[in-house]
Fold this protein.
Amino acid sequence: MPNTSEPVKRNAGADLVASADLDDTVDPRTTITGGTHPERTAVFEALDRFSVLPGLPPLEIRIHEGDGCRGHSGLFRTGTERWQIDICEVTPWVILHELGHAWTALHLTDQQRLEYSRRWGLESWHDPDTPWRLRGAERAADTIAWGLLEELVGCHLPDGPIAHRLQAFRQLTAVDSQRVRCTVRRPATGASPSLTTDPPTSSRTRVASLG
C-alpha cells in the first residue's frame, strides 16, 4: 500500500489515496482499495460531487468483488482512525449514499438530526429497533445522494415530492441542489401555473456560500 502521506495518481494501482485535483473535498489520508479502474473512477467521481459541501472525513473506501457488505449494497462504519466504507454494488447511488452517511456523521449536530427526523416524520435517527425506512440516518443519506446525483430532473410544483427532496437537502447541507434547472411560478390570478426554465449552468458548479 502506498504511503498515505504521499498522494498518488488515480491510475497508480488498487491502493489509492486522494489526488490533489479534488481540492479540499477529500482528506489526504483517504484511501481507495480494490475494484477495477472504472469502479475506482466511479468512486473518485462521487467524491468530486461532494465539492459543493464542507469536506469529508478521512475514509478507507474498500470495493469488494464478493459479499463484503453483510448482504447490503454498501456499509459505513465509524470508530477507527479512518472511517470505513465498503462498496459491493458500485453504482453512483450506492457510493453517494455511503459517503452521505460519512458526511452527516461528521457535520450534523444531535439537534439537527432530531429536527430533520421530526420534520420528515421519522421515528428515530438510528435506533436499531426502528425499521430502516423510518431511520433518519438512512433517509438523510438518501437525501444527500439524491441531491448530488449528476442527472438533472424536470420542472416541479412547489409542494410536490421533488420540492420536498430539495427542501430536505437544503435542511441538511444549507446548500441548494444543482439538479433542478426550472421552477414553477404561480400567477397572482387564477390562471394556470407557468414553467420558467432557469439559465443552464454546469451540474458541477461550485456553491460559493453556504448561506
DSSP finds five helices and seven strands in the chain. The chain has two domains: 10-107, 109-202. Residues 10-107 form one domain. The CA atoms of residues 59 and 79 lie 11 Å apart.
